[in-house]
């Protein structure tokens, strides 16, 4: 019997809280497209699929941006059916780097062109 596609997917790798590095987080947040994703997740406060955040780039480039955000520890991705759902790892980021995420999001709101 074939395993249904949605359950056949392997879990996506994420760093544990203690493994999240400031340099990786800053690198992930430095890109305007990735920052746009983070802002959307912060404003929503819940989970969004990759397609819920419109980015003016190709699908493969979107995949790259989400992978950088996941591997840096900025967001957590899980499969829900065929969609990848994304949630900001605010609690983990606040525990590792208190105030960093709020400072970056405040600056991004003040200077949206950055």
Automatic annotation (TrEMBL):
Do you know which SMART domains this protein is assigned to?
Answer: HTH_ARSR
| UniProt-listed InterPro entries | ArsR-like_HTH, HTH_ArsR_DNA-bd_dom, WH-like_DNA-bd_sf, WH_DNA-bd_sf
> Boundaries of each HTH arsR-type domain copy?
14-114
- Extract the GO molecular function terms from the UniProt entry: DNA-binding transcription factor activity
| Domain of life, source organism | Bacteria
State the protein's name. Answer: Transcriptional regulator
Q: Record the organism.
A: Streptomyces minutiscleroticus
* Phylogenetic lineage: Bacteria, Bacillati, Actinomycetota, Actinomycetes, Kitasatosporales
């Amino acid at each position: 019997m074939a395993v249904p596609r949605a359950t056949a997917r392997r879990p996506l790798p994420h760093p544990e809280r203690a493994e999240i590095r400031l340099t990786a987080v800053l690198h992930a947040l430095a890109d305007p497209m990735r920052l746009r994703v983070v802002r959307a997740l912060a404003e929503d406060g819940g989970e969004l699929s990759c397609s819920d955040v419109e980015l003016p780039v190709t699908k493969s480039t979107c995949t790259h941006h989400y992978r950088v955000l996941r591997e840096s520890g900025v967001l957590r991705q899980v499969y829900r059916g065929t969609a990848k759902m994304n949630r900001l790892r605010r609690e983990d980021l606040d525990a590792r780097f208190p105030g960093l995420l709020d400072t970056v999001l405040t600056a991004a709101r003040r200077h949206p062109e950055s």
